[in-house]
Design brief:
The protein is mainly alpha-helical. Helix content is about 80%, strand content about 0%.
């Protein structure tokens, strides 16, 4: 009993204090400073925000970022739901092997995976060479250094973030509910669409929001596969800090991204609780 009190009582705070101080110094203070820079322009506290609104290029970048994030989220949902359902239908060793294949990309650097797509989708890549040799095309297709390449690469990186939570939500469904629907005479298709699919919607929505949040701040994949032609907010912030530099405007854009992330994360928590209930 004394050991339990030592860990769970007030004295247990000392074990968490080093991590709390590290988070405060390495994360919280820089974020607060970033927010303050957005209101510290010599031209006025709201000058960066007025500049961001008046120059439509920044609004277009914001709109383009949200649009690409939405496209990637929809693609991940279309590909991820059947994959999660297939994993749920597997049993024993087959399920473990399939799950290992889904998790395997986490062991490879995002940078390596992104450059691998250049080898696959480039003008002299595997896809274009195969299509040219088969006579299906007469010139290479533009599969990278555009928005299509960014969507393909981002979907490849973020798909496991949707599949794994959705798979866990599917496993949590009480199979007796499905058996009851079948026992009442419902065909398999009706059981899926009227019972199983609605029960998985909270998990699917939570996974989609998670993918959307991660896409908003993506930098490496859009920078490489976009070839500088696809503007997203993370790339714009990098440009404003390292090349211009416009720290106040970069802080204002970062604040917008942070607020959008907080709103999406609040919905994610709400949907996660509903799915757990």
């Amino acid at each position: 009993m004394s050991r339990i009190k030592l860990v769970s009582g007030p004295s247990g705070i000392r074990f968490v204090m080093p991590l709390g101080l590290a988070m405060l110094v390495a994360f919280n203070i820089p974020v607060v400073l970033m927010l303050a820079w957005g209101f510290s322009s010599p031209a006025g506290a709201l000058a960066p925000w007025a500049d961001m609104i008046e120059r439509t290029v920044y609004l277009r970048v914001l709109a383009n970022t949200f649009r690409i994030a939405l496209i990637c989220t929809l693609v991940c949902a279309v590909l991820g739901y059947p994959l999660a359902y297939w994993l749920c239908c597997l049993q024993g060793r087959a399920r473990m092997i399939a799950l290992a294949l889904v998790v395997l990309p986490f062991w490879v650097s995002i940078l390596v995976r992104t450059y691998a797509w250049i080898v696959v989708l480039g003008n002299n890549g595997v896809v274009n060479r195969s299509l040219l040799e088969l006579g299906l095309i007469t010139e290479p297709l533009a599969l990278i250094y555009n928005e299509l390449g960014v969507v393909i690469g981002t979907t490849n990186v973020l798909l496991p973030f949707l599949v794994l939570p959705l798979f866990a939500a599917m496993l949590g469904i009480d199979r007796r509910v499905l058996q009851a629907a079948s026992g009442l005479g419902a065909p398999p298709g009706t059981v899926f669409w009227r019972v199983f699919f609605p029960l998985t919607l909270p998990g699917l929505a939570a996974g989609c929001i998670l993918v959307f949040i991660l896409t908003l701040g993506f930098f490496i994949t859009p920078a490489i596969l976009g070839g500088g032609r696809v503007s997203m907010i993370a790339n714009m912030i990098d440009l404003l800090i390292n090349r211009m530099p416009r720290w106040e405007l970069a802080a204002a854009l970062s604040t917008v991204l942070l607020l959008a992330t907080f709103v999406c994360y609040a919905f994610y928590l709400k949907l996660s609780k509903r799915g757990a209930a």
